[in-house]
Amino acid sequence: MPVSDPIADFLSRIRNAVKARKKFVDIPSSNMKAKLAEILKQNNFIRDFNIIEDNKQNVLRIHLQYIGGNPSISGMKKISRPGLKSYVASDKIPRVLNGLGIAVISTSKGLLTDQQARKHAVGGEIICHIW
Predict the structure, then answer these.
(1) Taking the CB of the first residue and of the last residue of the chain, which one, N or C, has fewer CB atoms within 10 A?
(2) What is the per-residue DSSP string for 39-84?
(3) What is the pLDDT of residue 2?
(4) Residue 1 domain-assigned (yes or no)
């Protein structure tokens, strides 16, 4: 069954797996989801991820991280939706929980965190906030 917003589905599957205390979650793969998983790993929100090759569509397996029994991901919020895109200039990039979380931004240089986008002085579409 096709999904109207694959990134919202990606975030929901991770959020549900964290609430159920799963060790990993399998998600249909795409290049954007793999890059988003890479950003989550670089910022220590997940332990690891790998792509499982399949005949139809590859599967992205995300290994969730728990520290002292508490999940590393406290919350996730999709900002840009298919019906309402949210764009931001490089000097207006928001801080998530005063710097404790990250904003993922789709820029001309690919997917970047809010800190990376400020460093490269590029704006773009705010995909989601993660804290």
Answers:
(1) N
(2) HHHHTTSEEEEEEE--SSS-EEEEEE-EETTEES---EEE---SSS
(3) 74
(4) no
